[in-house]
Amino acid sequence: MNWITRFFRRIYIQIVNSIAFYPAIISVAFLLFSLFIMQIEYIPFVIELKKGLKPMLVQGLDNARLILGTVTGSIFSLMVFSFSMVMLVLNRASSTLSPRVIPGLITKKSHQVVLGMYLGTIIYCLILIVNIQSETAEYQIPTLGILLAMIFAITCLGMFVYFIDSISKSIQVDNVLERIFKKTLHQIRHSGMPEKPAEMPNTDGWFSIYATGSGYMKQIQLKSLAKICRLQDITVKITENPGFFFVSGYPMVKVSKEIDVETADSIRSCFIFYIEEHVADHYLFGFKQISEIAVKALSPGINDPATAIKSLDMLSILFIEKMALNEKNYITDDDGKLLIFFREPTLEELLFINLTPIREYGKSDATIMLKILESLKNLAYADRDKQEYQNLLTKYMQSMIFSAEKYIANDLDLEQIDALIDRINYLLGKEYSVGREALKADVSHR
């Protein structure tokens, strides 16, 4: 039974995140609306209403068929062109930005609504065409329905102009970065809590639940998992954070007491695995997407260091938000009993995952190395009161200085780096000083 639940959850996520989700719903709505119009077209009240609208209603069977055929053909052409534009955007995003940003582009609701409006209008017009009666019928033409078809066609023209403008802007790297940044910032701020996180319990004597398959864990149904914990009177600890790749036999959950096989399967069913990375699932994916855009910008085929620099500026803001965050890492019941402990990525993990690739691909570019050091300096400045991450930030700054000294040979570039090091040391003080001499002394000591 649990595998059926997991299957339908996975199908639901795939459907909701599909480019065809809203178009399918809107098309069905237009189909139902067209059938409704056919039912009310010839009732006395509507016939009286149409007499007042007679100047705007079509006259003659040939004119009716011509109008509906023209609308159908025209909207079909707009739809084909719009779908072609979508494919072009996705191809451009994959080649110049990152394949991971594609789900965020195809799930933009406004674009799906436009495509749905095209499909719905075509379906609506086709239903009207088959309901045009012969010349001997009492009521030959669904004139009110045709008037609405013309209104829908004009609406589609306006939406087409919007679509072209929006789709051309959506591929611009600045807009893509801004969209990912805002979503990630929203996710970080909604992960916090007034109190400090609870300390993880000692789980040495706890029982492990192992993964039965392989895949990327992207979502956890925490409400369902909490319900199981209440019913079984257990506490669980989730071993890894979202995005982790589980293999069969890996311990995914630890349980405070031994449970039966059915309960273990129920707990496994609360974990959802799929390939796509959506920022709405966890802020970790937003960090990764911005970092990947920066790395892609530094590749020889694109060579766009300005995009990488802007990405680093956004990452530094997100890192600062993460530093100030008291993340909620547990769930309790109404009585305050701890039910679930879950793991969130640490600042050190985020720094390594996101800054290391940028450093590796930009290690010979002085502007990139200067920007990374500047970002770390800003993080250290934001932590000047709490002094919670100074050792970690100093270690990363020293690592960046080591790479810069090794791969940058130009004396002018090194002078700029030395000047930035002086400003960093002035900020950090003697206790956390960095520099090329400090690095040499540390290496010789080891």
TrEMBL record:
Keyword line: Membrane, Transmembrane, Transmembrane helix
Spans traversing the lipid bilayer: 21-47, 67-90, 111-132, 144-164
Keyword Cytoplasm: no
Keyword Transmembrane: yes
Protein name (Swiss-Prot/TrEMBL): DUF2254 domain-containing protein
